[in-house]
Amino acid sequence: MLRLARAFERLGEGTLTFVGDGPLRAQLEGRPGIVLGGRLPYDRIPAQVAAAHVVCQPSLIEPFGQATLEAMACGRSVVATRIGGPPEFVAPEAGVLVDPVDEDALVEALRAAAALPCPNPAARAAAAEHDVRRQAEKVEAILERAVRGRRA
């Protein structure tokens, strides 16, 4: 989070809103252009995403990237980690993948993602390919083929 805050400060424009709370709050408070939204009930998260131009989640560990995918489904461009799941679904026209420990890359990723359209139809289309219902249908089809193969 601190690396992202420093990268944002170097960018020098816009607003960076952190949603959630934790031990780094004191180190983030009072920084220009940074808003600390604190803990929010789940039902308020969609409004936060809708208010964003870019959703940034350069996680150090990201097995799948569900929050990134949800932001894309809302038509938001993303800055996401190259670690774990996001490289499977974040296309260049939908967002930017970064090494989460490379502050210079974060600055450039924020700049590039902010230049993408908002709402971003490419992000929405990429997310639709990974819709949970569609994924369940694919798994079901694989399982049905496996069952049919055993009966033969």
List the helices and strands and how they pair.
Blueprint: H1 2-11, E1 16-19, H2 25-28, E2 34-38, H3 45-51, E3 54-57, H4 66-73, E4 77-81, E5 95-98, H5 103-114, H6 121-128, H7 132-151
Parallel strand pairs: 1-2, 3-4, 4-5
Helix pairs in contact: 1-5, 4-6
How is this structure best described in words?
With about 150 residues, the protein is an alpha/beta fold. It has one domain (about 1-150): 3-Layer(aba) Sandwich (Rossmann fold), CATH 3.40.50. Helices cover about 45% and strands about 15% of the residues. The protein contains seven helices and five strands; from the N terminus they run αβαβαβαββααα. The chain has helices at about 1-10, 25-30, 45-50, 65-75, 105-115, 120-130, 130-150, and strands at about 15-20, 35-40, 55, 75-80, 95-100. The strands form two sheets. The protein has a three-stranded parallel sheet with strand order 3-4-5, with helices on both faces. It has a two-stranded parallel ribbon with strand order 1-2. Helix 2 (about 25-30) links the parallel strand 1 (about 15-20) and strand 2. It starts with a helix and ends with a helix.
Characterize this entry briefly.
This protein has 152 residues and is an alpha/beta fold.
List keywords for this structure.
152 residues; alpha/beta; Rossmann fold; 5 strands; 14% strand
- Helix and strand content put the structural class at alpha/beta
CATH fold type: Rossmann fold
| Share of residues in strands | 5-15%
Query: Could you give the count of β-strands?
Result: 5
Stretches with pLDDT under 50, minimum 5 residues? none
CATH-derived architecture: 3-Layer(aba) Sandwich
